[in-house]
Amino acid sequence: MSIAIRVRRTALACMLAATTLSVVAASASAQKYDSRSVNIGTGRPPVTTPAAPTPSRGGGSGSGYNGGGHRGPGWGTVVPGIIMAVPAMIPPSNPRFVDDGTVVEDIDRPRRPQRQRAQRPSNAPGANERRMVPDEVVIEVARSVTPQQIEGLQRRHRLTRIESRTMTLTGTTMFRWRIPDRRSVATVVRALEADRVVASAQPNYVFTLQEVVAKASDALPQYELDKLKLPQAHAIAKGDGVLVAVIDSGIDASHPELAGSIAESFDTLDKPMAPHAHGTGVAGLIAAHGKLQGAAPDARLLAVRAFDPDDKGAQGTTFNILKGLDWSIERRARIINMSFAGPQDPALGRSLAAAAKKNTVLIAAAGNAGAKSPPLYPAADPHVIAVTATDTNDKLFEAANRGKHIAIAAPGADILVAIPDGGYEISSGTSLAAAEVSGIAALMLQHRPDLTAAKLRERLMTTATDLGPKGRDAMYGAGRADAYGALVADDAPVAQTIPLPVERVSSDR
């Protein structure tokens, strides 16, 4: 028995040694193949690594590591315990060995292509665009972006943070950053657009108020009242309680014409508040109720200062307008008056679209850049009612913009307006016409609180007095607004379907 046991032990040892040697040989062969696959210089083609057989758990059918490679039962069924040590020495099913002995699995497996960001039109300004702050950019990021990511973004692009605001309308966060070196706005915008943290980037555009001051006056001619049929309209509604946001320069809330009209104020600027003629005049044309009569004398105003007076007038930027627009929506403004104009602005366009979805009536001045000017914004935005100006003879205000986007007209030439410190002056511009239409919209919403923004626009245009070429045109739009007509117009009655008599057919025929 002792001799038999020694023979069996010797046989098993030999079998294990043979297995070990075969595995080591396979390993050396794989290393040899892999080292050949590295091209040094040129001219030597890569050698494909042969795939190693797939190990089985014993009892194989002649392929793989079936108990030592012979046909018949594998070692796992003959000597329990020994086969457990063998798989540890068996290379993976699809390995490659590098020269340092490291096993790299699936190195030849094709990688899934990375998803590319959708190509979007760049918001970089054109070469001739000058209507922007020369050393600032406005960027938009998702709310989920962390402060650490923002800091990294700032460092990568070498920018200085000025301010930020989380926008209710778009559900994003807007940042205003300064370019501290001499890089152009276009260069920085393109670089930011390529950064995955940034949702959008653009210039901080500059907009201007649309008014031409003529002269001071003590007279009180208000020819626009009769033109717009406001006395008749006021017998029906005066805009009681309707919130109208005025995004403009500073409004003199102490002016007698506006006593009690300002519901709330918001200042987007970091400078001391100073009443300004444009903002005060526009507010008065909407809600004056002293010596003057506004289009909606009982309306409530949300006074938003977004324009800063300087020697050239008053200018406002993308960022400040966005802040004012967002605040106005938070305060549930039904109407937003925008008596300013400037370049097409992607960020402003997105906010206007979001405001329109909330059924907000958006009204803007067409602009005072003349017949040859391209469309100005926000008036040319599809969600906005663009208002042009006419004179006492229903002729188009000479400086008014033209275009297919013009919706309606209202008096805007030689209009008496309120100015700070209790004063008055004669002024002109599409800004003033827009304010009058905003007042008419307030009358309509008081009279029909459930009126949608789209229906209000339609009713304004269908009841307007046609001017110029017959039908809607690029100068007057649908024509001069008619406040009384817009109030008394009823929805077209729905035609009733009269059931026809049913002819009974006998089944006997």
TrEMBL record:
Gene3D superfamilies reported in the protein's UniProt record: Peptidase S8/S53 domain (3.40.50.200)
Active site, UniProt feature: 248, 278, 431
Pfam families: Peptidase_S8 (PF00082)
Cleaved signal peptide residues: 1-25
Keyword check for Protease: yes
Xref: PROSITE patterns: SUBTILASE, SUBTILASE_ASP, SUBTILASE_HIS
Domain Peptidase S8/S53: from-to ranges: 239-479
Composition bias, Gly residues: 57-72
A GO molecular function held by the record: serine-type endopeptidase activity
Keyword Transmembrane listed: no
CDD domains: Peptidases_S8_4
Spans annotated as Disordered: 37-72, 94-131
Start-end of Low complexity biased regions: 45-55
UniProtKB keywords: Hydrolase, Protease, Serine protease, Signal
GO BP, sorted A to Z: proteolysis
Family: Belongs to the peptidase S8 family.
PANTHER family, A to Z: CEREVISIN-RELATED (PTHR43806:SF11), PEPTIDASE S8 (PTHR43806)
Protein name: Peptidase S8
Native species: Pseudolabrys taiwanensis
